[in-house]
């Protein structure tokens, strides 16, 4: 049986098991990230330099009266933007090493859950999903009921939402200014 005996009497035991395992996995992944990244001095210095550069850039953009020469103002803003992009890229590369460890943990947990809940409906969706969402939500389930939800879909939704909110709660989410600038930043419209 996939769930402990005290949970098997509940109507939603399988879905609660998947959500509970997802919460535990998110906590373990954040603990790994804290051990490998968040407690190190290099991460703290990169984060503080990103915060300083973003505040400086914000004040430079709002304070257009202090700098009279337009050309020098744009050069200074471009310099600060470049340093912010470089620091954000360095931060993303720094986080990459724990990402590999976290990915291994997630693959192991997903494989375990997949073997426990293979072919079982763990939840019922309150709507009939469309196209590709239906393929993901009904993956590996017998029958044609589109409202049946597989473990993979529920686990994906839970792990994404729980881990993101846990990062925000613990203060580990990336700085706002660095959120868009990572390994693959948006192209600069001034250069195109």
Description:
One of its GO terms (cellular component) is endoplasmic reticulum membrane. It is a multi-pass membrane protein. Its main location: endoplasmic reticulum. It comes from Tripterygium wilfordii. It is found in: Endoplasmic reticulum membrane. The protein is mainly alpha-helical. It has one domain (13-173). It contains 6 helices and 2 strands; from the N terminus they run ααααβαβα. It has helices at 5-8, 13-38, 41-62, 70-116, 131-137, 151-170; strands at 123-124, 148-149. A two-stranded antiparallel sheet has the order 1-2. Helix 2 (13-38) crosses helix 6 (151-170). The longest helix has 47 residues, at 70-116. The radius of gyration is 23 Å and the shape is elongated.
Helices and strands in order:
Blueprint: H1 5-8, H2 13-38, H3 41-62, H4 70-116, E1 123-124, H5 131-137, E2 148-149, H6 151-170
Antiparallel strand pairs: 1-2
Helix pairs in contact: 2-4, 2-6, 3-4
Global outline: elongated
Category from helices, strands and their pairing = mainly alpha
Query: Mean pLDDT score, rounded?
Result: 79
**How many domains, in number, for the residues?**
1
Query: Which sequence of strands runs across the widest sheet?
Result: 1-2
- The Rg value, from CA coordinates, equals 23 Å
Number of strands: 2
Q: Helical region count?
A: 6
Order of helices and strands: HHHHEHEH
Uncertain ranges: 177-184, 188-192
Binned strand content: under 5%
Helix-residue proportion: 55-70%
Separation, N- and C-terminal Cα atoms? 59 Å
What characterizes the major β-sheet? 2 strands, antiparallel
Family: Belongs to the TMCO1 family.
Protein name: Calcium load-activated calcium channel
Coiled coil: 43-90
Transmembrane segments: 16-38, 99-117
């Amino acid at each position: 049986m996939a769930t402990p005996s005290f949970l098997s009497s509940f109507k939603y035991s399988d879905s609660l098991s998947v959500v509970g395992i997802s919460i535990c996995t998110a906590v373990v992944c954040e603990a790994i990230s804290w051990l490998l990244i968040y407690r190190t001095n290099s991460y703290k210095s990169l984060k503080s330099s990103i915060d300083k550069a973003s505040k400086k850039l914000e004040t430079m953009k709002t304070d257009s009266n202090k700098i009279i020469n337009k050309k020098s103002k744009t050069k200074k803003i471009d310099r600060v933007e470049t340093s912010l992009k470089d620091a954000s890229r360095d931060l993303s590369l720094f986080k990459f090493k724990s990402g590999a460890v976290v990915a291994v943990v997630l693959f192991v947990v997903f494989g375990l859950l997949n073997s426990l809940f293979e072919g079982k409906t763990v939840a019922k969706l309150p709507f009939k999903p469309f196209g590709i969402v239906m393929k993901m939500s009904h993956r590996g389930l017998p029958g044609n009921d589109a409202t049946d939800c597989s473990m993979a879909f529920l686990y994906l939704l839970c792990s994404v939402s729980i881990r993101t909110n846990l990062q925000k709660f613990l203060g580990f989410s990336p700085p706002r200014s660095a959120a868009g600038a990572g390994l693959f930043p948006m192209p600069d419209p001034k250069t195109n």
